[in-house]
Amino acid sequence: PELTPLNGGGYYGGTYWLKWNGRLSATMGAPLNWDVKLMKAKGILPGVTMAEKTVACADAAPTLDGLVAGTGVWAKAAETKLNGVQGEEDQPETTTFRLAYDEKNLYVGVKTDLPAGMKIPEFDADGNVWSTECLDLFVAASKTADVNYHLIWSPAADSRLDYAFGLITEPLDPNYNLPDIRWNGKWRHEDRRVGDVWYSVLTIPHDDLGVKAPKSGEVWRFNLGRFTNPKNEQGAEHIYLWSPNLDNNTLSNPEAMGRIIFD
């Protein structure tokens, strides 16, 4: 059956729980929740097809002013649009991003829709930033491919959450194969809201990832997501992702990460 609210209480039929990977008591994932029609239309083959993007080499550190004005390294860095979490192209909000790097950092410049009048709550470090308008980034350097990092941030100052997967290698450790919230990087975000647009520049030191500056042609794994709820209503949220997650409608699947290639 189609998605149908029951008694106005926010409970939905079977296809809702299938799409969102079950009700914990009976989880169902890939391939039962694949959008086969979309896969055929886009020529996507799970586990084989992978998004790719070039990272521009920066002569000088990219700035937030440059992102807003479209100047500096941001002018030569290709702009890429996020689609729906499983690759759906017809979406109500628009989010684009650009990538750059230098000897010290990886830079991510994001431009995304955000209503001017929307107030964004502030959170302490490692707070529930994912519960509001936010951006989600996933990255794994080539020399530490078994370790990936998840960074979440909002337009509110100092509102950020980060953790790592794969740093705990002892199978007997209770935190083995779980996100390690104890990891805290030195990455930072700078943000500006201009009308109904949120501009954000994320700076990730290579040291955060335990590597030195990448060489030209080096390949890392990467993904960028966006969570929106412009109406602040239950059921009004939308999820966007650069490299689509074909297994389920969530952001945090390291298997969905695409490839970024350093210029």
Report on the structure:
The protein has 263 residues and is mostly beta strands. The protein is 9% helix and 30% strand. The chain has four helices and 13 strands. The N terminus is likely disordered.
Explain the layout of strands and helices.
Layout: H1 14-19, H2 36-42, E1 52-57, H3 64-69, H4 73-76, E2 80-81, E3 83-84, E4 95-101, E5 105-113, E6 134-140, E7 148-153, E8 160-165, E9 188-194, E10 197-205, E11 219-228, E12 238-241, E13 258-262
Parallel strand pairs: 1-4, 1-13
Antiparallel strand pairs: 2-4, 3-12, 4-5, 5-10, 6-7, 6-11, 7-8, 9-10, 11-12, 11-13
Share in helix: under 10%
Q: What's the overall geometry?
A: globular
Q: Count of helical segments?
A: 4
Measured distance between first and last alpha carbons = 48 Å
Report the radius of gyration as a whole number of Å: 19 Å
Q: Kindly state the number of beta strands.
A: 13
Low-confidence stretches: 1-12
- Largest β-sheet summary: 13 strands, mixed
What amount of the residues lies in strands? 25-35%
Q: Name the average pLDDT.
A: 85
